[in-house]
Amino acid sequence: MIKKEQWFLYIIAILSIIAALVFKNPKIAMWMGFGLAGYSAIANDSIQTLGTFLTTNKKRPWWLLWMFIGGILVLTFIYGYFTENQSIHFGRLTSISEPTSFSYLQLLSPIILIILTRLRMPVSTSFLLLSTFSSTSTIRGMLTKTFIGYILAFVVAFILWSLIAYWYKQIFTENDQKKAPAKIWYILQWCTTGFLWSQWLMQDAANISVFIPRTLNLYQFAGAVIFLFLIMGYLMYIRGDKIQEVVEEKKDINHIRSATLIDFVYALILLYFKELNHLPMSTTWVFLGLLAGRELALTERAENGDALPFKKSLKLVGKDIMRAGFGLAVSLVLALLINGNL
Fold this sequence. Notes:
The chain is mainly α.
């Protein structure tokens, strides 16, 4: 019997061959690129928007999670379509021209992202998918905004969780261990997750829609949204797959009170950068900055003063940065190979 990993390699090989055959046909290539980007971007970024939600709702049926998350996706894109000139990129592609032709590497980039996701690497989907279509000035602006986002998220998280460290331990962690949280916490988490998920879509839908026309007719829009809705069903069914381990290895993140607070702070940061300007950025790096600041704040405030937990947390932070940094390097190399003028 063929093992699961062998099936994965076969699928990657088939997709790579198909991409090589169709990239010279723009009408086919754009929709293949959209399909690959739709799956790969959401699968990789699911850890930052839905990771805590999946962790704390393991016992709930996958189809219930799908209806909730998929419903928000549909409503968000309907809102964007009728308020953003029949587009689904929420203004994030104003600095990136609509492609009229495609290179093989542009279609290969989402396939590479699928591989990195399989290897549990939370990479920047914005850079990996958008940099191959972007100019030097746009990439420079994205890098600057992303760097600021990481630092801001780190500082906000470190200060916040440092201030509430003792209260957090008593109210959040120990209470979760002693008894089941009140029902209000489940309501708060689902509301917070919905808010965060909509903010991520408005920020990172550009990564998916960069392949297709900037404005869509009603049939194109309906087809695109139905496809993404089905993608969400599959991801809920497999519970995020292997990359979900990146979230579950963090401190106390499986507690619903903790997960709700993380998601709410992250959503507010994304809302700030969404309103700041229309330039795309890496939400992955913002999320990693948030987790890093929180992780170091909680271990640095450990009551027993033991340095080992702090060193362990520092190692986790460094591992996340290395994973994301590798993805960033891959995306910039692809951009250079495709556009020699960068």
